[in-house]
Amino acid sequence: MNRVLVIGSGGREHALAWRLSQSTTVEQTFVAPGNAGTALESGLTNVVLDVADFTAVVQFCQVQNVSLVVVGPEQPLVDGMVDALSAAGIKCFGPSAAAAQLEGSKAFAKDFLKRHQIPTASYEVFTEVAAANEYLQNQSFPIVIKADGLAAGKGVIIAEDLAEAEATVADMLADNKFGNAGSRIVIEEFLSGEEASYIVIADGKTFIPMATSQDHKARDNGDVGPNTGGMGAYSPAPVVTPEIDQQVAEKVIQATLDGMAKDGHPFVGFLYAGLMIDAQGQAKVLEFNVRFGDPETQPIMTRLQSNLDELCLAAIDGRLDEVSCDWDERYALGVVMAEKGYPFSYDKGHAIHGLDQMADDIKVFHAGTASKDGDVVTSGGRVLCVCALDEDLQQAQSKAYEAVKQISWGSEYYRTDIGFKAIR
Ligand code: AMP
Ligand code: GLY
Question: 3-state SS of 100-162?
Answer without folding.
Answer: HHHHHCHHHHHHHHHHCCCCECCEEEECCHHHHHHHHHCCCCCEEEEECCCCCCCCEEEECCH
